[in-house]
C-alpha cells in the first residue's frame, strides 16, 4: 500500500457506537475500571506488596547512585544485559524525596502500568471500534494475579516498561499505517526511539517490535524510503545508544549474556520445557494462577490458548481482505498474534521453561499485549455470531474473567503478610543502626535489600551458606566490608546460613554475640 494521508478508520469490524446514554455509560464504566485497577495497585504498594527482594533493591541502589551523581550505570549491576531505565526513572523521585524508599522506587512502575492500561484501551478501539469490548479488555487488565502485579510493580528490570512500550508501538503503527494525519514525523521518531530503548532495556519485547515494524513496512514502505525512515532510524539509534556505546567501548556482546540468562548454556529435557512453556507458562504469565502455583482447574487457559490463537489469526487474515481501513486493523491483529506465538516458542525452547517454570513465567509478560486480538473473535461471536456460538463465547469470557478475578483475590490475600515481613525488615535495619553496625555479611537475598533500605548506612557483602564469598553485584560493597575491622553477620531465622552460624557460635563460645529479632538473627563479633 502506498504511503500518504488517508481517511482515518473508525475500527476494524464494527461501527462507532452511537452517541447517547449507552456511549456515556460505557465511558463511565471504563473510567471506573481504570480507577479500580490503579487503586488496587496503590493498595498493594501501601502494603509493601508484592514483596521486594535484593534484585529490586539493586535497581534501587542504581537509582540512588544516579540521584547522587555517583554513577550512571548502563546495565543492571553485576551483568551485561537488562538496561537500567527504571533506575533513571526513579532517580528524580529519590532526589525530590531526599532519599530512597520502596514506594519511591515503585511510583514510576505504577505510572507505567497506567500508561499501559490507557494505551491498550486506545489500541483496542483502533483495532475494533467497539467501546464495550474496550471495557472488557480494561477490566481484564485492571485485575492482577500475583505474577502479573509482580511484573507490573516490582522495579527489578525490564518488565514494567515493556508492556507500556509495546502498546505504544502498536498504537503508533496503526496510526501511521492507516495514514492518520498530524504529527507524523513525531510519530515516526517516537516509534524508533521506543524500539531502540526496548533493545537496550530487555529483548523479551522484540517479537512485538518486529511485528509492529512489519506492519509499518507493509503499509508505509514508500514513506519509509524518505525522511520518515531517516527519522525512525536516527531515533532508534538514540534509544539504543547506551547499549551501542557500551558494546563498542568494551567489545562485549550483550546477546551472549541474554542467551546465558535464558538458559542457553544449561540443560533441560524437552518434556519439562513443553510442560513449563505450554502448560504452566500461559496461565501463570497471563494472570490465571495463584501465588507461586497453578491449581489443575486453572490450567484450562493453556488448552484454550492455541485454539484462540488460530481463530484470531484466521479472522485477522479475513479482515485484511475486506478493504483499506479493515486491512490495517486486521494486519495489526495478525501481527500481535504472531508476536505471541514467537514469544511462546522462544520461551518453550529455552531451558528456563523446564528448569524454573513458575518463576520464569515472567518471560511471558508481553502476552498481555495480544489480549485485544485474542479475544476479539470471541466477542464478535457473542455479539453477532450464530446462536450456537453465543453460549460458547459467554462461557469462555465468563471463565476468563472469573479465573482472573479469583487469581487476583488469591494474590490480594498475601498483602498483609507482605506488610508484616516488611515491618520485620524495618526493625532489622533500625536495630543494626541502633547498635552502630556499619558492615555486615549476609546471603544474596538479604544483602542489597539491607543496603538499600538503610540508605547505604549499612553496607553488606554476600556470602553463601558455607560462609564463603558469594555474588556481589556491586563490588565496592565487598571491598568496604573486607576492609572493616569486625563485620557482623545477618541471617533469616531458620535459614541454612543461620544454622551454619549457630554451629560457629557453639563451637567457639564467646566469639559471637547473638541478637534475635522476629524473623532475623544478628551475630556480632566480640
What's the short story on this structure?
The protein is mainly α and 526 residues long.
Your description of this structure?
It is a single chain. By secondary structure, the protein is mainly alpha-helical. The chain is built from 23 helices and five strands. A five-stranded mixed β-sheet has the order 2-1-3-5-4, sandwiched between helices. Helix 1 runs antiparallel to helix 4 and helix 7 runs parallel beside helix 9. The radius of gyration is 25 Å and the shape is globular.
Work out the radius of gyration: 25 Å
The low-confidence parts are: 1-19
Question: How is the biggest beta sheet arranged?
Answer: 5 strands, mixed
User: For the residues shown, what is the average pLDDT?
Assistant: 91
| Adjacency order of strands in the biggest sheet | 2-1-3-5-4
Q: Which SSEs are present, and which pair or pack?
A:
Blueprint: H1 21-46, H2 54-68, H3 85-97, H4 102-128, H5 131-142, H6 146-153, H7 159-177, H8 184-201, H9 206-224, H10 227-239, H11 241-250, H12 254-261, H13 270-286, H14 300-320, H15 324-349, H16 351-355, H17 357-360, H18 371-384, H19 390-412, H20 415-434, E1 439-442, H21 444-453, E2 459-462, H22 475-482, E3 488-492, H23 496-507, E4 512-517, E5 520-525
Parallel strand pairs: 1-2, 1-3
Antiparallel strand pairs: 3-5, 4-5
List keywords for this structure.
526 residues, mainly alpha, 5-stranded mixed β-sheet, globular
Amino acid at each position: 500500500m502506498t504511503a500518504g494521508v488517508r481517511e482515518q478508520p473508525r475500527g476494524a469490524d464494527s461501527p462507532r457506537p452511537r452517541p447517547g446514554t449507552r456511549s456515556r455509560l460505557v465511558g463511565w464504566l471504563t473510567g471506573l475500571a481504570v480507577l479500580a485497577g490503579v487503586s488496587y495497585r496503590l493498595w498493594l504498594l501501601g502494603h509493601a506488596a508484592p514483596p521486594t527482594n535484593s534484585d529490586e533493591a539493586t535497581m534501587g541502589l542504581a537509582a540512588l547512585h544516579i540521584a547522587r551523581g555517583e554513577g550512571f550505570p548502563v546495565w543492571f549491576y553485576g551483568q551485561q544485559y537488562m538496561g537500567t531505565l527504571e533506575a533513571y526513572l526513579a532517580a528524580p523521585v529519590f532526589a525530590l524525596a531526599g532519599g530512597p524508599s520502596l514506594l519511591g522506587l515503585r511510583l514510576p512502575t505504577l505510572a507505567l502500568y497506567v500508561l499501559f492500561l490507557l494505551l491498550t484501551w486506545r489500541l483496542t478501539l483502533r483495532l475494533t471500534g467497539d467501546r464495550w469490548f474496550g471495557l472488557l479488555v480494561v477490566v481484564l487488565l485492571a485485575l492482577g494475579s500475583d505474577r502479573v502485579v509482580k511484573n507490573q510493580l516490582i522495579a527489578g528490570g525490564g518488565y514494567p516498561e515493556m508492556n507500556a512500550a509495546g502498546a505504544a508501538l502498536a498504537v503508533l503503527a496503526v496510526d501511521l499505517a492507516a495514514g492518520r494525519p498530524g504529527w507524523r514525523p513525531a510519530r515516526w521518531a517516537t516509534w524508533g526511539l521506543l524500539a531502540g530503548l526496548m533493545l537496550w532495556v530487555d529483548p523479551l519485547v522484540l517479537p512485538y517490535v518486529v511485528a509492529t515494524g512489519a506492519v509499518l513496512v507493509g503499509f508505509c514502505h514508500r514513506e519509509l524510503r524518505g525522511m520518515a525512515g531517516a527519522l525512525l532510524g536516527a531515533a532508534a539509534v538514540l534509544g539504543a545508544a547506551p547499549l551501542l556505546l557500551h558494546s563498542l567501548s568494551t567489545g562485549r556482546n550483550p546477546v551472549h549474556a541474554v542467551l546465558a540468562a535464558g538458559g542457553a548454556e544449561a540443560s533441560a529435557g524437552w518434556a519439562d520445557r513443553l510442560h513449563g512453556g505450554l502448560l504452566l507458562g500461559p496461565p501463570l504469565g497471563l494472570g490465571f494462577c495463584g501465588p507461586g502455583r497453578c491449581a489443575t482447574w486453572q490450567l484450562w487457559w493453556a488448552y484454550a490458548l492455541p485454539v484462540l490463537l488460530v481463530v484470531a489469526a484466521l479472522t485477522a487474515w479475513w479482515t485484511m481482505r475486506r478493504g483499506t481501513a479493515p486491512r490495517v486493523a486486521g494486519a495489526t491483529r495478525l501481527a500481535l498474534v504472531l508476536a505471541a506465538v514467537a514469544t511462546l516458542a522462544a520461551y518453550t525452547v529455552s531451558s528456563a521453561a523446564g528448569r524454573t517454570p513458575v518463576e520464569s513465567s515472567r518471560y511471558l509478560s508481553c502476552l498481555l499485549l495480544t489480549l485485544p486480538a485474542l479475544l476479539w473473535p470471541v466477542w464478535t461471536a457473542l455479539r453477532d455470531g450464530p446462536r450456537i456460538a453465543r453460549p460458547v463465547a459467554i462461557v469462555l469470557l465468563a471463565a476468563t474473567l472469573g479465573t482472573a478475578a479469583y487469581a487476583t483475590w488469591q494474590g490480594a490475600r498475601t498483602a498483609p503478610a507482605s506488610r508484616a515481613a516488611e515491618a520485620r525488615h524495618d526493625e532489622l535495619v533500625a536495630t543494626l543502626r541502633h547498635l552502630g553496625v556499619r558492615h555486615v555479611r549476609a546471603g544474596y537475598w538479604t544483602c542489597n535489600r539491607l543496603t538499600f533500605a538503610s540508605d547505604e548506612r549499612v553496607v553488606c557483602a554476600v556470602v553463601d551458606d558455607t560462609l564463603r564469598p558469594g555474588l556481589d553485584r556491586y563490588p565496592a560493597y565487598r571491598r568496604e566490608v573486607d576492609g572493616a575491622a569486625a563485620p557482623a553477620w545477618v541471617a533469616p531465622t531458620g535459614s541454612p546460613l543461620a544454622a551454619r552460624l549457630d554451629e560457629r557460635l557453639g563451637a567457639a563460645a564467646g566469639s559471637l554475640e547473638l541478637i534475635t529479632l522476629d524473623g532475623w538473627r544478628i551475630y556480632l563479633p566480640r
